[in-house]
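In the design runs reported in the main text, the only information available to the sequence generator was the tokenized backbone. The following block is the verbatim input for one such run; it is reproduced so that readers can re-run the procedure and compare outputs position by position.
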């Protein structure tokens, strides 16, 4: 039996600890905060979108998507549902393939993990931010109130996104101490900023829309989903997905009626004398009429190709995940460090992030399984 330290009490850390405990290993789970799973409890707008029925590596960004694909193939969406339901609960897909607990409460998913860890008699250390890891015929971990020895370490302490949950990027230094590099980091699944003068009147309006990211006149990404206007930009799941592609200086092109052809719109506008009643929400209609009367395009073009400049994003404080991290090419097939045998990685700390829709939690669960399997093989 090995003594294993898992650093990080989020989705990846808890999942890895459960796998190892079920295999009869001795596990200490170290969490810097006052409780486990704080970020997990907020996922999916609090509803707990744990995976997606459409699971391929094409939904991920990494330095090695082939390795992402191999790890996903070893522990995929069906495995995630089976794993979670083995602790209790029922998980079901919605019409768009996003899988949620039937009760639609992310906090309940966290409670499943907490209950399972308790049943498995996990050694859990809260308020334990690991400050240093050294190696001398085994690992020594140190934090403010204590220290421990371990045969293997799983670093699953997250990235820089959502620092209010304790993921402020400090864990990267633990990997760098063993010679690992960190790719450039940026926020992902985050609101995008635009010209407040163009969006302020639309604040609070949400539409199921088509969205394109345009760069130098060419489309570099397209998707469909919710677009929500804020006082200084746009949010919603379509925008979160697009944020992985969009850069400052790009243009967003919004199709407010993706299921309606331009010819049909033109006929409706002729019949109504230019009214947008029963076409779009009244607030959006008034804003588009004002823009059209100001010479900024025809109503049809504004409905089908409403453009907004990308002025930036809302930062790590408002991001759901981190783009970048420890390169996958500095790990083996079980996400074990190529710099120090016995050191493993899981979750967001790695340079692998997914689109909006349960893909990042799936990566947390898949990478946790890979790390646990690697430890058991050592």
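Verbatim output:
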């Amino acid at each position: 039996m090995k003594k294993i330290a898992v650093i990080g009490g989020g989705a990846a850390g808890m999942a890895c600890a459960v796998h190892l405990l079920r295999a009869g290993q001795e596990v200490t789970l170290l969490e810097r905060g006052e409780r486990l799973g704080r970020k997990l409890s907020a996922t999916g707008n609090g509803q707990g979108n744990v995976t997606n029925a459409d699971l391929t590596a094409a939904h991920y960004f990494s330095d090695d998507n082939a390795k992402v694909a191999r790890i996903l193939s070893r522990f995929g969406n069906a495995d995630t549902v089976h794993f979670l339901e083995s602790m209790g609960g029922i998980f079901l897909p919605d019409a768009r393939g996003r899988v949620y607990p039937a009760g639609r409460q992310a906090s309940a998913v966290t409670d499943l993990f907490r209950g399972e860890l308790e049943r498995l008699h996990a050694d859990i250390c809260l308020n334990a931010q690991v400050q240093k890891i050294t190696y001398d015929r085994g690992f020594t971990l140190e934090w403010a109130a204590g220290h421990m020895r371990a045969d293997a370490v799983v670093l699953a302490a997250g990235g820089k996104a959502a620092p209010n949950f304790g993921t402020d990027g400090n864990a990267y230094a633990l990997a760098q101490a063993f010679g690992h590099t960190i790719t450039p980091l940026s926020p992902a699944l985050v609101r995008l900023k635009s010209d407040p003068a163009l969006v302020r009147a639309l604040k609070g309006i949400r539409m199921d829309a088509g969205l394109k990211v345009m760069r130098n006149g060419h489309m570099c990404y397209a998707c469909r989903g919710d677009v929500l206007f804020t006082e200084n930009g746009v949010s919603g799941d379509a925008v979160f997905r697009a944020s992985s592609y969009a850069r400052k200086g790009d243009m967003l092109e919004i199709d407010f009626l993706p299921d309606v052809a331009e010819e049909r719109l033109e006929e409706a506008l002729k019949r109504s004398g230019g009214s947008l009643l029963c076409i779009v929400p009244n607030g959006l209609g008034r804003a588009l009429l004002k823009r059209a009367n100001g010479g900024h395009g025809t109503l049809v073009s504004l409905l089908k190709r409403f453009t907004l400049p990308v002025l930036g994003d809302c930062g790590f404080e408002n991001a759901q995940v981190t783009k970048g991290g420890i390169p996958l090419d500095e790990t083996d097939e079980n996400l074990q460090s190529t710099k120090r045998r016995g050191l493993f990685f899981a979750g967001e700390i790695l340079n692998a992030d997914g689109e909006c829709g349960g893909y990042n939690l799936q990566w947390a669960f898949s990478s946790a399984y890979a790390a646990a399997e690697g430890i058991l093989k050592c």
